[in-house]
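Many introductory courses stop at the sequence. We go one step further.
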Amino acid sequence: MPLSTTEILATIIIAIAVIKLVVLSISPKAWYSFAGKLYTKPKVTSFIALVLAGIVFYFLQRAGTGIIEVFAVMLFVSLLMVVSLARYVKTIIEFYTKKSKKNLWKEHWLDTLAWIVLLIWGIKELFF
């Protein structure tokens, strides 16, 4: 029985998560080394991640998943991320406080633009 689009996407994230947990269990240094290499060029990594997000979003749309369902799942994932990141909030705030002296919007224009488009689309779907 062939997998649906959403099942394939779920399989991808499950496989990545299982691999990450196994590698972290066996050799955290190996995972940190891999992650370090992955993020050596943050602009390239960000761009690739945004393109991949667009591809996943396209397939979700083709599978019949609406923008409102996507936002509902984003809320769930965001809350899970808060669980992981809450202990680092002081460091994160200090980092961005120092960065705010520079033009933060200039550095984050592409991801901000993506969020604005998605937010407008979501608001339109909900209220109009």
